Amino acid sequence: MRVDLFDFELPPELIALRPARPRDSARLLRVEGDAVSDHGMRELPQLLRAGDVLVFNDTRVVPAQLEGRRGEAAIGATLHKREELRSWWAFVRNARRVKLGDWVTFRGGVEAEVVTKGDDGAVLLRFAGEEPVEVLLHRAGTMPLPPYIASKRPIDALDAADYQTMFAARDGAVAAPTASLHFTDELITVLDKAGIKQETLTLHVGAGTFLPVKADDTADHQMHAEWGRIDQPTADRLNSARAAGGRLIAVGTTSLRLLESAAGEDGRIRPFEGDTAIFITPGYRFRAVDGLMTNFHLPRSTLFMLVSALMGLDTMQRAYAHAIAEGYRFYSYGDGSLLLPAR
User: Fold this and answer.
1) Which NCBIfam families match (predicted)?
2) pTM of the shown model
3) d(CA 189, CA 250)
4) Which of 22, 149, 203, 336 could tie 228 with a disulfide, CB 3.0–4.6 Å?
5) Is 315 in a helix, a strand, or coil?
6) In the chain, % of residues over pLDDT 90
7) What is the CATH number of domain 65-141?
């Protein structure tokens, strides 16, 4: 499909630079079939049914934005995927200033060697020393806020908490599964009382999620791989809930992509551990999920293509036009949507 079909105009003042406080005070746009209605996050228990399952991503964001030097050259690196215990792929600013075998010194004396350069311009960095790389990153790095936020204000101490979800448990992401940022202990308690279940899986979100689609046609775009895991007990519970009539509602496009990667043609979810580079565009047949909670996405992005595949491009263009007219807040720190396709 032509990428320009997924374009729309967004007033820049609707880009949220801080999250709602408290988190569950954010607005929620429900799109069910072709119908659109305005709600708040605290109404979610009334918008779902007993037996439904919300599937969260328990990845934890690491401080993956690094600034350093190679000699006199300033080098910026955004880690996007772990390759081995001490090695990460990174998108590097001034990549032409580094070559194989070069050492880059980051803040706090953290050092990494350039061991490989990828065809896509990414660089594989191997970190020196014996301390866990996560410890080194907390010494050297900052939270990797999306460019549409970081370009408008400095990253600060608030972001260290604001950009983590309440489910964050497993280090490895360089971008937050932002749909989960709207949840609080209080909201989860109300959902429990309403008979709405929760499950978690792990997908370590990569910085590739922010990369623009440069191709003119979706068939020519290549997704970056991300590592994910669903264990056997979780897969069994998800399949049982669906067999009993419950709906699987992915909280975030990351959860959705992993569920779909793990599902067979019969719709059953299998245990999964490894990389996925699934790219979902209109025409895709969904097998595992019955709905999606997600924030509002960039025009021409792979994530807007995904929600258009779930709900229909015309429906999502109308829903986004409504959200813009009603002043919903967009992107990572913005408001949420509940997408329930007609079945």
Assistant:
1) PRK00147.1, queA
2) 0.93
3) 19
4) 203
5) helix
6) 85
7) 2.40.10.240
